[in-house]
C-alpha cells in the first residue's frame, strides 16, 4: 500500500469524522458552524470592488445576511463583494463588480443587473474578504434564470 | 432516388435545425463573440457525434464503404477541432472556470462529463489515426475505438442535457436522442463486442 494515501483505515476515519460532525454538531446549540467557501466561488474575483449604491442599471437584487460563527450574532458594517455574468457584462468585466455593507441587522441588499445563465448555470458570486474574519467565497445558483433576486448567507469565523 | 434525397435532407436538417434554434437564443445578446463561437462549436460537435455512428454504420445512401470511412475520418478530425475551439473559446472567456473543469473541481456537474468525453474523443481519434501503427487485431482495435466513442457520446449527451445554455431544449433533446439511437444501432449492427477470431 505504499504510495497510496487512500487506505481502508483513512476511509473509515474520514467516514467516521463525517458522521460525527453531521450527527453531533447540532447537539451544540450555540455552535453555529462557519460557512465554507463554495467550489468555483472565487472565479473571476477582482479584489477591492468599490462600494456602490447599485451595480449598473439594476433591476435585480442580491440579498443575504452575515453572522458570526458560534453565537450567530448579526455582523453590521461588513463589506460584501458581488459579481456575476449579467445583461450588462461578463464576470471578468470591472463594471460587473460592486460591494455593499451590511446594516445593523447584519443584512445586505445590492441592486444589480439581471443575472443571466453563463457557463451552464445562472449563478452569482459573493466574497467576504476584509480580514477580520476568514475569507469566504460563495457561488449561489438561481432556482430559475427568470428569478429577479438571489440570496446568499455568510457565517464568518473570526480570525 | 426520392428516398436518398429524403435521407440526406433529414441528415442536413438534423445538423442545422439545432444551430438555427441556438442562433435565436436570447442569451447571445449578453455574450462576447468568442463565447458565442465556443458555444456553437459545442452545438456543431454534437451534430458531428450524430454523423460519426451513421458513417461508421454506412447508413448514408450514395456513399461507398470507402467514402463512408473517409468521411468518418474527416468528420472525426473536424470534431476534434470543434472540441478544441469549444474548450479554447470557453477558456478565453473565463479561464478559472475551464481550469476547474479540467481539474475535475468545478461546481457544475456537467463539466466533468464534458471533460471525460473530450479525453475519450481524443483517445478514440488517436486510435483511429494510428490504426496501422497500433498493429492490433481488427476486432480488438474496433472494440477499443468504439468503447472510447461510446464514452464520448454518453459523456457529451449528459454534458449537454445538464447545461442551461444557448441550445433550445426541444432541439437539444431531439439531437441527443438521435445521437444515442444512431450509436446504439451502429454498435449493434457491427456487433463490436464480438471479438472472437473467425474459425
Give an overview of the whole structure.
The complex is a heterodimer of chains A (about 160) and B (about 200). Chain A is of the alpha+beta class. Chain A has a domain at about 60-155: Aromatic compound dioxygenase (Protocatechuate 3,4-Dioxygenase, subunit A), CATH 2.60.130. Chain A is built from one helix and seven strands, in the order H-E-E-E-E-E-E-E. The mean pLDDT of chain A is about 90. Chain B has eight helices and no strands. Chain B has one domain. The longest helix of chain B is centred in the middle third of the chain and has 29 residues, at about 65-95. The interface between A and B is medium-sized, with 23 and 22 residues.
What would the principal axes of the Cα set say about the shape of chain A? Answer: globular
Major sheet characteristics of chain B? none
Query: Looking at the structure, what is the overall shape of chain B?
Result: globular
Give the structural class of chain B.
mainly alpha
The average pLDDT of chain B is 95
Uncertain spans of chain A:
none
How would the blueprint of this fold be written?
The complex is a heterodimer of chains A (about 160) and B (about 200).
Chain A: H1 8-24, E1 60-68, E2 79-84, E3 97-101, E4 107-112, E5 124-128, E6 136-138, E7 149-156
Parallel strand pairs in A: 1-7
Antiparallel strand pairs in A: 1-4, 2-3, 2-5, 5-6
Chain B: H1 2-23, H2 33-56, H3 65-93, H4 95-102, H5 109-129, H6 131-134, H7 138-162, H8 169-190
Helix pairs in contact in B: 1-2, 2-3, 2-8, 3-4, 3-5, 5-7, 7-8
